[in-house]
Amino acid sequence: MKKPIELIVNGQKHELLVAPNELLLNVLRERLGLTGAKYGCGIGECGACTVLVDGKPLLACLALAISMDGREITTIEGIAEPDGRLDPLQEAFLQNGAVQCGFCTSGMILMGRALLSENPNPTEREIREHLRGNTCRCTGYTQIVNAIEDCKCPPEEV
Amino acid sequence: MVNTHILSPEFAYHEPRSLTEAVALLQTHGPAARVLAGGTDLLVQMKLGKVQVQHLVNISRIPELRFLTSDGGLKIGPLTVHRDLEKSPAIREKFSALFEAARSVTSVQVRLMGTLGGNLCHASPAADSAPALIVLGAKIMLTGGGGTRTLPLEDFFVAPGKTGLKPGELLAEIQVPDPGPASGSAFLKLGRVAADLAKVNVAAFIRRERDVCRECRIASGAVAPTPVRLKKAEEVLRGQGFGGDLCRLAGEKAAAEIQPITDIRSTAWYRRETIKILVRDALQEAWERAGRT
């Protein structure tokens, strides 16, 4: 039986009727047209479907949409400025050549954002540790880590 | 063919707001019902067609099951996610094995979604939290129609994927006693890569009295049908003056005591070889930590 839910996605409120077996990722991609979060493995191993739910990175492929009633969701489409200016981390990914095929990029950038908001000055080890659930099959990890390091906020600037 | 991009089976969805309501639902629907918390295990199994669910009871909006208090010992609500365990200063300071086990779980996202209750109730032989909690002497409180009962965690696991939960019963609380003075614990895990289930995991707890090992508990996962206590290995150290040779010997006993299998993650031979090292190192780490408290 379908149930009405309310999702706040990238600041915009959506009222949706969802079936119990609809996944958050399918709702985002197929019903809201937000295809930035990718469908990779579908079983929580690759991190390509990562979105922020109430600010925390979760796997949209393992979340039932029906259980997300009232939650605030941020996808990669929602992190640039309204005027189109990129988020500094998106900019750093471009500067570092941290995007090759792009399939993992949305997840990587959202993980980077989540890390920097909780730890503005992570070590390289902490960055790698934080990204360990996100797989890049072009194996561009070094550039990805460098991009996040470029957005660190050393203590004197905090 | 399995398509993990959709969740094809249809099921009735329930979202109880209290423990009483959840227990009533589980009693009404019996074996047709499954409990959903974080979803990182159950939804994967449903996608892969390994479990059939007619009634999905999502307990994640029950406030009574979401708590973490520390007053010497710990009282942990089953909805506590691994990330909360890892971020708790009390756990980091006094319950090292639990801290290390929580932190070792695959990825940040899974640690933010996956609950401690789910990790225990799914009864994976490789569950990381289980050996840590077993050596820390954890008890679990189960609630059902007939009231509540408490049992040691090590008696909870019956077989792969099977626990002592009776139909209509729900895990309501995990209790960990104060480890007390001069004690220390450690958890070690060997996986193929960092974001993986264990090939072997080991937890150890030691209480020392100067140079003597007064209390010793060792438990391991992914080496038997359930997480197991390694009592023969423990006996090697209990009441003895501590030393590297004894830790090595305990590792050998552990290797003889387990019943590992060969599967996609490792071979039985490799598990027997590596548990020797993990037991030795976990004991040494626990001993050193016991000296600092």
Q: Can you tag this structure with a few keywords?
A:
heterodimer, A: 158 residues, Ubiquitin-like (UB roll), DNA polymerase, domain 1, five-stranded mixed sheet, B: 293 residues, alpha+beta, Uridine Diphospho-n-acetylenolpyruvylglucosamine Reductase, domain 2, Uridine Diphospho-n-acetylenolpyruvylglucosamine Reductase, domain 3, five-stranded antiparallel sheet, four-stranded antiparallel sheet, 11 helices, 35% helix
Task: Explain what you see.
The complex is a heterodimer of chains A (158) and B (293). In chain A, strands 2-1-5-3-4 form a 5-stranded mixed sheet, covered by helices on one side. Chain A is built from 5 helices and 5 strands. Chain A is α+β, with helices and mostly antiparallel strands and 158 residues long. Chain A has helices at residues 24-31, 88-95, 105-118, 124-130, 141-150; strands spanning 3-9, 12-18, 50-53, 56-59, 72-74. The termini of chain A are far apart. The radius of gyration of chain A is 16 Å and the shape is globular. Chain B folds into 3 domains: 12-58, Uridine Diphospho-n-acetylenolpyruvylglucosamine Reductase, domain 2, CATH 3.30.43; 63-176, Uridine Diphospho-n-acetylenolpyruvylglucosamine Reductase, domain 3; 184-292, 2-Layer Sandwich (Enolase-like, domain 1), CATH 3.30.390. Chain B is built from 11 helices and 14 strands. Chain B has helices at residues 19-29, 42-47, 82-87, 89-94, 96-104, 108-113, 116-121, 129-135, 231-237, 244-257, 268-292, and strands at residues 12-14, 33-36, 55-58, 68-71, 73-76, 139-144, 147-152, 157-159, 162-163, 170-176, 183-190, 200-209, 212-221, 228-229. The chains are: A alpha+beta (158), B alpha+beta (293). Chain A binds chain B through residues 1, 3, 19-23, 26, 39, 41-45, 47, 50, 56-59, 61-64, 66-67, 111, 114, 129-130, 132-134, and chain B through 3-13, 15, 36, 39-40, 43-44, 47-48, 56, 58, 60, 106-110, 112-113, 194-195.
